[in-house]
Amino acid sequence: MKRLGILISGRGSNFEAIADSIDAGRIPNAEIAVVISNRPEARGVETARRRGLNTVVIPSKGLDRETYDRMVVEELRKNQVDLVCLAGFMRLLSAWFVEQYPLKILNIHPSLLPSFPGLDAQHQALEHGVKVSGCTVHFVDACLDSGPIILQAAVPVLNDDTVETLSARILKEEHRIYTEAINIVLSGKFRIEGRRVILT
Ligand code: GAR
Question: Residues 6 or more apart from 198 whose CB is under 8 A from it?
């Protein structure tokens, strides 16, 4: 059994999609060992507790990055986590954190990276006027939204889109490809050449 540690900051819909996939047998041989939120008020915290999952709040407010990351890694180790999934976790990880889990930290981002990293990716895409956007699951390195890309999915940007309608279209794809990417990584069916993740 592979043990997932899921890090959230907010709504937690990607976390829920992963939990649903596990419950439905779409991610075989995996379980959620711990859900960690850096925000006590995150809606995902309530959801995780309701689902009976081991849920830990480690507030990040006022702590420097390294101090905070050490607390999170301690919790991940305590729960013997094999794979860390950032699911709307709105904090940059320190180089030290990333070094503790080489190729074992995934993130989902609501744009076709390297376009529109950082906050409000869907707003950035609309403002820029792109005709296609989407989402990316990638390995995490110490830079913002920058590690090797595992999977992407594209969606059209429509004339009458608002941030809300575009975000909803992208989110549906996020939920789909995150499960797929977790399966790829857990099964080890990939190799890395430079920045390229080659699915085998
Ligand atoms: C998702 O759209 C995720 O891709 C994005 O935050 C949202 C979290 O929603 N993440 C980032 O922008 C990371 N840079 P959720 O809490 O419902 O999963």
Answer: 190, 191, 192
Residues 108-200: name the CATH superfamily.
Formyl transferase, N-terminal domain (3.40.50.170)
Is a pLDDT exceeding 90 seen at residue 179?
yes
pLDDT over threshold 90, residue 142: no
What's this model's pTM, rounded to 2 decimal places?
0.97
Q: What is the mean pLDDT of residues 15-33?
A: 98
Asked if 9 contacts 164 with a C-beta cutoff of 8 angstroms, the reply is no
134 lines ligand 1 (CB under 6 A): no
Query: So where are the chain's domains?
Result: 1-101, 108-200
Domains 1-101 and 108-200 share a fold: yes
Is the CB of residue 145 below 6 angstroms from any atom belonging to ligand 1? yes
pLDDT score for 23: 98
What does the alpha-carbon distance between residue 58 and residue 39 come to, in Å, rounded to a whole number?
7
1-101: CATH topology: Rossmann fold (3.40.50)
Q: Which atom of ligand 1 is nearest to the CA of 9?
A: 16
Q: Binning pLDDT at 50, 70 and 90, where does residue 118 land?
A: very high
Burial 88-123 (b: 16+ CB within 10 A, else e): bbebebbeebbebbebbbbbbbbbbbebbeeeebbe
Tokens standing for residue 16: 């829920």
